[in-house]
C-alpha cells in the first residue's frame, strides 16, 4: 500500500492461521498502517511505519512523527502496541539522555533523525526492543550495500510490555528486499511463543512459527 507516486509505501503480512484473529487494518497514510488483532486474550495493535529519510524536509519529518504520536495516544492503555518498520534514523550504542527508552545496545553513530525517534519513544513511554539485547554485528546490521552497513529498522513496545519480549535479532541469511535483512522479534502473549518479522518498507508477521 503506497502513494500514487509509488515512492513510499508500507504493508503487512499475516500467517494464514491468524487471519481470523484480525479485527481491522487501517491505512493512515502511505507511511503508516495499523493492524489490530486478538492473540491469546491480548488486543494487539501492530504499527508498520516508514519514516521520511534524511533527505526529506524537516517539516515533513515533524509532521510524520506528530501524526503517529497522535495515533498511539488514542489507543487504550489496556491494549498492546508494537511499532515495527524503517524509522530512518541511527540509534547508536550510547543511551545517554534516553536510558528509559534505550536499552544500551545499539549500532553505529547517532544522527539527527535519531533524536526524533528517541524523543517520540520517550514521550509515549516506549522502549526500543533492538537495544535490549547484546548481539554480534551480523545480528544487528539490517542494511548492507558493499562497505555501507546500517541499522534503521526498529521495534518498539510500551514499557509495561517489555517483559514479554524474549529476543530481537537480525537473520543475516534472509533478505526481505535486496540489501535489507529480516528483523525478528520473539515474544509471549498468553499462548505459546510468538514471532514477528519485520522488513524495511514492508513487514511480515509469523505468529506461532
Describe what you observe in this structure.
The structure is a single chain. The protein is mainly beta and 209 residues long. The chain is built from two helices and 13 strands. The protein has helices spanning 58-73, 112-123; strands at 13-14, 22-29, 32-39, 42-50, 80-86, 126-128, 143-145, 148-150, 153-158, 165-177, 180-187, 194-198, 203-206. The strands form three sheets. It has a six-stranded mixed sheet with strand order 2-3-4-5-9-6, covered by helices on one side. It has a five-stranded mixed sheet with strand order 1-13-12-11-10, with no helix packed on it. A two-stranded antiparallel sheet has the order 7-8. A hairpin with a 4-residue loop joins strand 12 and strand 13 (203-206). The radius of gyration is 16 Å and the shape is globular. It starts with 12 loop residues before the first strand and ends with a strand.
Shape: globular
Low-confidence runs: 199-209
SSE series: EEEEHEHEEEEEEEE
Strand content: 35-45%
Mean pLDDT: 78
CATH topology: Deoxyribonuclease I, Chain A
Regarding CATH, which class?
Alpha Beta
Give the terminus-to-terminus CA distance: 25 Å
Amino acid at each position: 500500500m503506497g502513494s500514487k507516486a509509488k515512492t513510499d509505501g508500507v504493508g503487512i503480512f499475516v500467517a494464514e492461521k491468524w487471519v481470523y484473529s484480525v479485527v481491522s487494518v487501517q491505512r493512515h497514510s502511505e507511511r503508516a498502517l495499523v493492524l489490530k488483532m486478538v492473540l491469546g486474550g491480548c488486543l494487539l495493535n501492530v504499527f508498520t511505519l516508514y519514516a521520511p529519510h534524511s533527505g526529506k524536509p524537516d517539516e515533513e519529518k515533524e509532521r510524520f512523527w506528530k501524526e503517529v504520536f497522535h495515533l498511539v495516544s488514542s489507543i487504550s492503555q489496556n491494549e498492546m502496541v508494537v511499532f515495527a518498520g524503517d524509522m530512518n534514523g541511527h540509534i547508536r550504542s550510547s543511551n545517554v539522555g534516553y536510558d528509559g527508552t534505550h536499552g544500551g545496545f545499539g549500532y553505529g553513530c547517532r544522527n539527527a533523525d535519531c533524536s526524533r525517534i528517541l524523543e517520540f519513544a520517550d514521550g509515549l513511554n516506549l522502549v526500543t526492543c533492538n537495544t535490549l539485547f547484546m548481539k554480534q554485528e551480523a545480528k544487528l546490521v539490517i542494511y548492507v550495500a558493499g562497505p555501507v552497513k546500517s541499522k534503521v529498522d526498529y521495534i518498539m513496545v510500551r514499557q509495561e510490555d517489555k517483559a514479554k519480549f524474549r529476543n530481537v535479532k537480525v537473520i543475516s541469511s534472509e533478505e526481505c528486499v535486496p540489501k535489507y535483512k529480516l528483523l525478528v522479534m520473539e515474544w509471549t502473549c498468553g499462548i505459546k511463543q510468538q514471532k514477528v518479522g519485520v522488513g524495511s518498507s514492508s513487514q511480515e508477521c509469523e505468529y506461532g512459527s
